[in-house]
Amino acid sequence: MEQVIDIVLLAFMVVTALAMIALRNLFAVVMLSGIFSLLSASMFVLMDAVDVAFTEAAVGAGISTVLMLGTLALTARAERTPRRNSLLPLAVVVVTGAALIYGTLDMPHFGDPQAPIHQHVAPRYIEDSPREVGPPNMVTSVLASYRGYDTLGETTVIFTAGIGVLVLLGARVDRRRCNAQAARKDAGEGRS
After folding, report:
1. Tens of pLDDT along 144-156?
2. Which of 42, 124, 136, 190 is the most buried (most CB within 10 A)?
3. How many angstroms separate the CA atoms of 129 and 123, rounded?
4. CA atoms within 13 A on the CB side of 20
């Protein structure tokens, strides 16, 4: 039954991605990207990666959708039609996809008990994390200690991206205010 749910979710993700490619209305594309993120989060839950699912739902469906809607408010609603049809972007996507699929061929199967992570890393975390780190919750010890720099890096990247977007949006609003004030000043001088 779980495989049927996986296949249905994957089919919905493919349909959503194809719809995003075909649409020219940017508002619809933003909404579909939020739906795609929620479907991805659901897939992560089915793979027992709840922490990744929470991150995907919060960042992918939440913050990203809000930022894209904010950007859309400052830009046009429809994508311009491309001037020429080029097969180069399609070729790049196909080659990149083939390289990614080729790279996954050597990976162990999902849930394989003989996978390297289950032979070395996981037993060490289970046995040594209470003594080395202290918290009784193994997930907390891994995220806060063993992967502390990684978590800090992820937080820093998200914070920096958010600040960058806010600065860009703020600069555009300030420019509009300056232009409006200059127009009012010019109109006032024209009357006198």
Report:
1. 777 777 777 877 8
2. 42
3. 10
4. 15
